[in-house]
Amino acid sequence: SHSLSQPEREGMFHRGPGLNLTSGQYTAPFAGYYAFTSTLHIVRREPRRRRQGCRGSRLRVLICVQSCCQHNSNLESVSRLESSGDPFTISVTGTLYLQAGQYASVFVDNTAGSPLTVQSGSDFSAVLLGV
């Protein structure tokens, strides 16, 4: 299985209290339910030396609490990877409960193995809905 890792980032994510641009983490100032949204504009570069078959043609984007992406408390979106070189957009949105001081961050699970670049204009936001 492939490990989850942060993509290369060209763009900046939205600023706001609790969001650390260096780590890409949003830390909850209060315990409560937060509405998370992330929209990533991604370009995939296919290595010329080897071509992939049908296997591994999916891309998963997750918003995970405390980097626990295997846990049930995450948001997930899955997209089919189309042909290389065409930019595409993938969004993930939903509600997560965070304790005060817990963080949420965006992960990209790149099963295809070809390099991805997250382009500018991508965003990640969190809004406190209620405690």
Automatic annotation (TrEMBL):
GO terms for molecular function: hormone activity. It comes from the Eukaryota. SUPFAM superfamilies: TNF-like. One of its GO terms (biological process) is negative regulation of gluconeogenesis. GO terms for cellular component: extracellular space. It is found in: Secreted. Residues 1-131 form the C1q domain. Keywords: Disulfide bond, Glycoprotein, Hormone, Hydroxylation, Secreted, Signal. Belongs to the adipolin/erythroferrone family. This is Erythroferrone. It comes from Promerops cafer (Cape sugarbird). The gene is Erfe.
